[in-house]
Write a structure and sequence with these properties.
It is built from 3 helices and no strands. The protein is mostly helical.
């Protein structure tokens, strides 16, 4: 997720993404079972909610 999020914003180094943010966001989404991937994004690369939080969007 961190790499996909970084790739969605040119010039962003995946090593600068926060692992703790990824784990907390993934945990929250699994518990809620909501917005894990963007609607209609199956089969495509997407940052979704986790990637957006990593990027601070």
């Amino acid at each position: 997720m961190m790499v996909e999020a970084a790739e969605s914003r040119p010039g962003t180094d995946p090593d600068r993404c926060g692992f703790t943010i990824v784990i907390q966001t993934a945990r929250d989404l699994v518990v809620q079972a909501a917005d894990v991937i963007k609607p209609g994004a199956l089969g495509t690369r997407t940052t979704g909610v986790i990637g957006n939080r990593v990027l601070g969007c």
